[in-house]
Amino acid sequence: MIGTQSPVLAVLCGDQHPPDMDSIEHAAAVRYTDEAGLKKALHGADILFVYDFLSTAVPGAWEAADKLRWLHIASAGVDPVLFPGLRESDVVLTNSRGVFDDAIAEYVLGVVLAFAKDFARSRQLQQERTWLHRETERISGRRALVVGTGPIGRSIARLLRAAGLSVAGAGRTARESDPDFGVVHASAELTTHLGDYDYVIAVAPLTEQTKGMFDARAFAAMKPGARFVNVGRGELVVTEDLIGALRDGRPAGAALDVFDTEPLPSDSPLWTMENVLISPHMSGDFIGWRNTLVEVFAANFERWRTGQPLRNVVDKRLGYVPSGSN
């Protein structure tokens, strides 16, 4: 165990405490806090567990982190806590990589099928009690580009391929013969390749290089009839450019689970577009996911207190856990 006293753990959770914390509470002095009390909770704390992973309060309270050695966030994305003060510190950053991979992949397959089989229109006609026979699309043989080649992107690629789609990836480095994607295009050359695909799925981490990568130029490069899916970060997309592109029919449709402003404002044109499927940042949230997030932290906490290397350590320069890491 590190040290002779129980470590001090600050948990940023607002009014919704994480479940199944009993074993951790027996091994640490736990301080549950909301955003307003974060500075007080951070003072003297060894560990910060950002259970409220949508909170942006950590940078403003950072000056109180006088003893902090480890910060864990209960999400795969780390952009809410990856600010200069943390980057420049010796504090280790870990995330919850692996929890949401399969659930998000299932969501993506679901919306691909929803577009191809025109489920939204069928539901509308059902409500109108209208019998209107239509022909729908096959997904077998269609081409999908997964932009983001981390664990979530790989799960998406494997599931789409199993459903009969041809899948490629886009990431930092171009390569061939990837076990999950086959071909991986360089993200810097994204617009060169977008026109070759029927489905474009955004799941890249949010970094300075990826912010706003889907802009008017990118959407104009897509093929007629293509659909766009965003399960990554809202800030990957220039929203006004997407709205304009959808009105112009390229892409022909979009399934959006994340937005640059959440909740999505009630006056957003996206709400009423017939070619848009909206979900409220829930693509990875399966029944029991909150318990699983605590299990991931608890396993890493046990490693920390027994002096073992932590898992899911984020490269603070890159903004994600490098491929091949534990």
UniProtKB/TrEMBL annotation:
Signal peptide: none annotated. Residues 17-314 form the D-isomer specific 2-hydroxyacid dehydrogenase catalytic domain. SUPFAM superfamilies: Formate/glycerate dehydrogenase catalytic domain-like (SSF52283), NAD(P)-binding Rossmann-fold domains (SSF51735). CDD domains: 2-Hacid_dh_1 (cd05300). Gene3D superfamilies: NAD(P)-binding Rossmann-like Domain. InterPro entries: D-isomer_2_OHA_DH_cat_dom, D-isomer_DH_CS, D-isomer_DH_NAD-bd, NAD(P)-bd_dom_sf. Pfam families: 2-Hacid_dh, 2-Hacid_dh_C. It comes from the Bacteria. This is Hydroxyacid dehydrogenase. It comes from Amycolatopsis albispora.
